[in-house]
Amino acid sequence: MRYFPLSCRLYCFHGEVRQKLTKATADRDGGLVYTGEGAKLGVYLTSWLKGSEGTIRRSTFVRYEQISRVHLRPALENLKLKNVMPAHVRDPYRQKLDAGLSPRTVQYIHVTLHKAPKQAVRDGMIPRNAMEAVKPPRPTRKEMRPHSPPKSDAS
Questions:
Q1: Superfamily in which the 36-133 domain is placed by CATH
Q2: CA 4 to CA 146: how far, in whole Å?
Q3: 23-79, pLDDT tens digit by residue?
Q4: Is the dihedral of CA 101, 59, 65, 111 positive or negative?
Q5: For the chain, which residues make up each domain, given as ranges?
Q6: Of 33, 29, 120, nearest to 83 (Cα)?
Q7: What distance in Å separates the CA atoms of residue 60 and residue 66, rounded to the nearest whole number?
Q8: 103-122 and 86-98 helices cross at what angle (nearest 10)?
Q9: Largest separation between any pair of C-alpha atoms in the chain
Q10: Quick check: 95 pLDDT over 50?
């Protein structure tokens, strides 16, 4: 490992910071400003559901609302939307599986939690969707057992 004097390390760090600040300023000047600074995830989930009610099937809306109400809001409602990290979601997924929920149900939870921040990215509220980095559990496939053919009484 190569040793750099403190002054070089500070300069390199400041160079990175300067680069990020320049990019953020250019984004702002180009009209790209992230407006979700104080938005909480629970509040955003509610508004996202209200906004998507007429654009998805009724049964899908009912399922998203149920998942949001029962699973997502109690666990994640106080997180700020911009601060949600993949680690915040992996633990609740594990807890749901340990509590006896099926992997398919946790996968539905993931789909719901993935779609809401995806819309927030489109709306310019947050720069990225942290759920892109989270893999949901893979549902287990049950082995199919065919029915035995009925016995005929042709004697």
A1: Tyrosine recombinase, N-terminal domain (1.10.150.130)
A2: 69
A3: 766 665 554 445 556 788 888 888 899 998 889 999 999 999 999 999 988 888 888
A4: positive
A5: 1-33, 36-133
A6: 120
A7: 10
A8: 160
A9: 98
A10: yes
